[in-house]
């Protein structure tokens, strides 16, 4: 049986009706990844079209300049050559659905600063700051993982937001580069984290055991870290982070310590994936749960088998192509999955039409 979902209300760009098949089981482990096999795109400022202007609505405050204005919504996102098209589409989607787009401040984490020109030319009057992420900061801590793409240093930049962003930035939304937001991000921003440091949608029916190796579970000194909490899987591609608390409790160091355990691993590795497991080790069971609509993940499916994924049941505020397939690659190769057409309206890559 097919069911038809009308997503037209979600998209201001186009009326899109998508036919989906209802395979609604929970997804296997998927981590937002950088696939090094993807075609690199040239990054002259002219390779991206300029987006329309996105002015604030009348009821929005004007606020002051800089990143320290308390009325701002802060978003951190990485920019690299392989995923640039995805990052630009993500920014575009945020602006398009915000009531107050000029009150959104973007923090771009980069290895190469020349990407700033692309952002500047694609978006007029975008409020942003570019931060150089030093790959040496994590290089010694990264162990080889099941997928080479998971080993890219920029995948680990999310561990260091509290150090990299200015101290006046007290909360940030971290977003992966393979997603689009189809709702006002200010709603996600206002999430109540209670006493928690990280907020994210939790998936308590996912099999948590498989994110760690047998060696981890059989060593009580290691597995004991989950004593007294009920750990659930969450995806680190969409997180609301209380940076004040993060700084106060030194979570960067706690994450690094788990990476050191994995790296040392005399008795064998304790997990197979890349940047995700240390987050699970530190935060699983201590996460402020956010509505699942804010991370409809797994849409990347599996490029090798060419499989397409459906949405989880329920409303959608954010579509996330985690997994190895990316919508731009599938659209370019004329073999898109049905949901890839929801990404296309945000794509700014290519010459002006
Ligand atoms: C969960 O995953 C582990 C490790 O892969 C496996 O041994 C176990 O049978 C799984 N449990 C369920 C309920 O599927």
UniProtKB/TrEMBL annotation:
Its EC number is 2.4.1.-. Transmembrane segments: none annotated. One of its GO terms (molecular function) is glycosyltransferase activity. Residues 1-21 form the signal peptide. It is an enzyme of class 2 (transferase). GO terms for cellular component: Golgi apparatus. It is a single-pass type II membrane protein. InterPro entries: Glyco_trans_8 (IPR002495), Glycosyltrans_8_dom-fam (IPR050748), Nucleotide-diphossugar_trans (IPR029044). Keywords: Glycoprotein, Glycosyltransferase, Membrane, Signal, Signal-anchor, Transferase, Transmembrane, Transmembrane helix. It holds the Pfam family Glyco_transf_8. PANTHER family: GALACTURONOSYLTRANSFERASE-LIKE 7-RELATED, GLYCOSYLTRANSFERASE 8 DOMAIN-CONTAINING PROTEIN. Belongs to the glycosyltransferase 8 family. This is Hexosyltransferase.
């Amino acid at each position: 049986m097919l069911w038809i979902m009308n997503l037209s209300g979600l998209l201001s760009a186009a009326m899109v009706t998508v036919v989906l098949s209802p395979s609604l089981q929970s997804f296997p482990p998927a981590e937002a990844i950088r696939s090094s096999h993807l075609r690199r795109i040239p990054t002259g400022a002219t390779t991206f079209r300029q987006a329309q202007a996105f002015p604030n609505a009348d009821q929005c405050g004007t606020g002051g300049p800089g990143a320290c204005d308390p009325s701002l919504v802060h978003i951190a996102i990485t920019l690299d050559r392989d995923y640039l098209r995805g990052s630009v589409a993500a920014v575009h989607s945020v602006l398009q659905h915000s009531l107050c787009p000029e009150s959104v401040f973007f923090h771009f984490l980069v290895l190469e600063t020349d990407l700033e020109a692309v952002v500047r030319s694609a978006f007029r009057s975008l409020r942003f700051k570019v931060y150089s992420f030093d790959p040496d900061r994590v290089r010694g801590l990264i162990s080889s993982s099941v997928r080479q793409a998971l080993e890219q240093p920029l995948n680990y930049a999310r561990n260091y937001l509290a150090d990299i962003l200015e101290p006046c930035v007290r909360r940030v939304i971290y977003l992966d580069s393979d997603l689009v937001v189809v709702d006002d991000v200010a709603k996600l921003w206002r999430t109540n984290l209670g006493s928690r440091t990280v907020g994210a949608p939790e998936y308590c029916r996912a099999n948590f055991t498989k994110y760690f190796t047998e060696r981890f579970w059989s060593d009580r000194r290691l597995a004991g870290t989950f004593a007294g909490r009920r750990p659930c899987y969450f995806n680190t591609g969409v997180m609301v982070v209380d940076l004040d608390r993060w700084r106060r409790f030194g979570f960067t160091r706690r994450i690094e310590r788990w990476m050191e355990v994995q790296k040392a691993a005399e008795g064998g590795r304790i997990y197979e994936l890349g940047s995700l497991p240390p987050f699970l080790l530190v935060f699983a069971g201590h996460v402020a749960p956010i509505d699942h609509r804010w991370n409809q993940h797994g849409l990347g499916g599996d490029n090798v088998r060419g499989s397409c994924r459906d949405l989880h049941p329920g409303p959608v505020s954010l579509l996330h192509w985690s997994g190895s397939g990316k919508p731009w690659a599938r659209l370019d190769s004329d073999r898109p999955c049905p949901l890839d057409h929801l990404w296309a309206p945000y794509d700014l890559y290519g010459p002006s039409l």
